[in-house]
Write a structure and sequence with these properties.
mainly alpha
Length: 152
């Protein structure tokens, strides 16, 4: 009866992913990074064992690709102030040293791998530009908040 699971529509797998996994991630930027991390960098295939076990491998991959594209569109359209706010949330939830993460993002630009394969090149360029601007604003905002704690 395992074949019955492979007939389940992608939309159901997508909603399952949103409800069970992505709802636990604190912001859209973090969701975007999470979804990109679930994609094999050599093939572009997504891997999510839970979805693949409940649906099918192909259905899980399609649902992940849908979610990745949808979240990317949301993040790419964020006003700069909101993007900076979400970066703060992402950094606070990271288990890494925040200064090291910011340094790596500036030098290595790992956020580029967060762009879905089917992304519009103009939207992708806007996303990269906004991330770079946010990376300039964030340290200044942090130093301003340290200098004037009552403003934060």
């Amino acid at each position: 009866m395992k074949t019955a699971l492979t007939i389940v529509p992608v939309q159901e797998a997508y909603e399952d992913l949103l409800r069970r996994t992505l709802a636990k991630v604190p912001c859209d930027l973090a969701r975007l990074i999470y979804l990109a991390s679930m994609r094999d960098y050599n093939t572009g295939n997504y891997h999510h064992d839970g979805l693949a076990a409940n649906f099918s491998l192909e259905t899980a991959r399609e649902a992940m690709a849908m979610a990745h594209s949808a979240v990317f569109q949301k993040v790419a359209a964020l006003p700069l102030k909101e993007l900076v706010r979400q970066m703060v949330i992402y950094l606070e939830c990271s288990h890494e040293n925040q200064e090291e993460v910011l340094h790596a993002w500036r030098r290595l630009e790992p956020y580029r791998i967060a762009i879905p394969l089917n992304a519009n090149p103009t939207v992708a360029a806007l996303f990269i530009s906004n991330i770079k601007l946010a990376l300039v604003i964030l340290p200044r905002l942090r130093s301003q908040n340290r200098a004037h704690p009552s403003v934060a």
